[in-house]
Design brief:
Order of helices and strands: HHHHHHHHHHHH
Helix content: 55-70%
Largest sheet: none
Number of domains: 3
Number of helices: 12
């Protein structure tokens, strides 16, 4: 991709940009990787210059296309620009270039020719799994995050249907020793509070035919009777 080096070149790209997906991803990517805001005075970021030069377009849309395009250039190459969904490529947005290439190599090993011949086969979920397998994580797991709460809920009430999703979350949790310790403490306190609440509830028993309350297991053994 040709890098923009002058204001004149940049202005032509800004004027000619459209909402058509392929046009937008190509031009947004070119503006972004060229760092065009450095060619002008008064702009200190990609966001500031896009909001000034492209007021009718959503900055989030422009940035998503630009960032996805930058990642595509670094991994799949310029010929594949615009071939993959933004959501799949943006999974790697927080990784450096070498890390992105490692994840891409894993995807190539897993998908083979499908990665170039059937680009729709590359989904955000598949990229996320590849990142987890390479030891990279899309986001930092925090005590307030949905994943943290999800893991805690699953451990309390886990089902076979959730096992695969839980396994990926566990990989994140186990990668952070401090977070794991916090999680165990929180889980322990939650479980203890739950058990305490159960003990506080009155227990109702059906009356025996004799009209007396049935003995529980502890009372039976105390009387020396067989369980």
């Amino acid at each position: 991709m040709k890098i923009i080096k002058t204001q004149t070149e940049a202005s032509k790209v800004f004027i000619g940009i459209t909402c058509h997906n392929h046009d937008l991803i190509y031009k947004a990517t070119r503006l972004y990787v060229s760092k065009v805001w450095t060619l002008y005075e008064g702009y200190d970021s990609f966001k500031s210059i896009c909001e000034a030069k492209l007021p009718r377009l959503s900055y989030k849309t422009i940035f998503d296309y630009a960032k996805a395009g930058e990642i595509t250039l670094n991994t799949a190459g310029p010929k594949m620009l615009g071939k993959y969904s933004n959501s799949s490529m943006l999974q790697m947005r927080k990784l450096d270039k070498e890390a992105q290439k490692r994840v891409w190599k894993r995807l190539q090993d897993k998908l083979g020719n499908k990665l170039t011949q059937n680009t729709a086969s590359l989904t955000a979920s598949i990229v996320s799994d590849a990142m987890l397998n390479e030891g990279f994580y899309k986001e930092k797991l925090s005590r307030d995050s949905n994943k943290f709460k999800y893991i805690k809920t699953l451990i309390m009430h886990i089902t076979d249907k959730d096992m695969r999703k839980a396994a990926n979350c566990f990989k994140e949790l186990l990668a952070d020793e401090r977070m794991l310790q916090d999680f165990v403490l929180e889980l322990t306190s939650t479980k203890a509070a739950s058990l305490q609440g159960q003990k506080a509830k009155p227990t109702s028993h059906k009356k025996a035919r004799s009209g007396k309350q049935p003995l529980n297991r502890k009372q039976t053994f105390d009387k020396g009777e067989k369980a």
